[in-house]
Design brief:
Blueprint: E1 6-12, H1 19-37, E2 44-50, H2 57-67, E3 71-75, H3 81-91, E4 96-99, H4 107-118, E5 124-128, E6 135-136, H5 140-157, E7 168-171, H6 172-181, H7 189-199, E8 204-208, E9 210-211, H8 221-241
């Protein structure tokens, strides 16, 4: 079987309530993306990167991979978003990788990102919740947290963009060495990936997105703070001073 053109990697954690519906909507909606891109033969795989769920998410992901040939899944065995995303990227077979969120599955971002990448306008597209033209409809506390983290990245690592976490798409061959060099997992893997790509001279393009989540976050924001702070310290040390985490 020919490899897919695009791999969509989606970390999933305690998502039994929306998993089947979200994956079905995504696969059905890709026909409109193909039509908009004038690419009816565009081959897509969806990789469900289950990580440490306490509900039936792992079982449902396995069922979906049995039922739909476009779907693959694996279970990490621990709740670790960044580690699951990294493994999904490394296992992806498509020339283009899209990192998505199960509560978003933003097909408009897919379309716009693929247009840029297929025309070789850039190496990576980041969907920004914070740049001009974006619409972030999350609760105020979560919007504020995004700006605080971005501010910390600017101060600590001279980050020049407006967002690192969430939707992104990239040329897998160009980004694979960056992915393999990343050492931070959990919440800040995505930040390390974007920052390393920029510092390596790759062409990173931000585009605004409209963000409306389908459900409340699976992990409480307050519980994530200690992990984020430790990750930020490690990330700063590793990138600034070339140390090991």
């Amino acid at each position: 079987m020919s490899p897919p053109d695009v791999s969509i990697v989606i970390p999933v954690y305690n998502e039994e309530g929306i998993l089947r519906e979200a994956v079905t909507e995504l696969l059905d909606g890709l026909d409109a993306v193909r039509k908009a891109l004038h690419a009816p033969d565009l081959r897509v795989e969806v990789i469900l990167a289950e990580n440490g769920s306490r509900d039936r998410t792992s079982e449902l992901a396995a069922h979906l991979s049995d039922e739909r040939p476009e779907v693959r899944s694996f279970s990490l065995g621990e709740p670790n978003y960044g580690k699951a995303l990294r493994r999904g990227i490394l296992e992806a077979r498509g020339a283009i990788v899209i990192c998505d969120e199960i509560d978003l599955c933003d097909l408009d971002f897919h379309r716009r990102a693929l247009e840029h990448l297929r025309h070789h306008d850039c190496d990576m597209v980041v969907g920004s919740k914070a740049m001009k033209g974006a619409s972030d409809q999350r609760p105020l506390l979560r919007r504020a947290a995004t700006r605080v983290i971005n501010g910390m990245l600017r101060v600590a690592l001279d980050f020049r963009g407006t967002d690192t976490h969430g939707l992104k798409a990239f040329d897998r061959r160009a980004l694979l060495p960056i992915v393999e060099a990343c050492v931070i997992d959990r919440d800040l893997f995505a930040s390390e990936l974007v920052i390393r790509a920029s510092r390596a001279g790759l062409r990173v393009l931000e585009i605004p997105i409209r963000l409306h989540e389908k459900r409340r976050p699976a992990i409480n924001l307050v519980r994530r703070v200690p992990h984020v702070l430790r990750g930020m310290a490690k990330l700063t040390y590793v990138i600034r001073f070339g140390g090991k985490p």
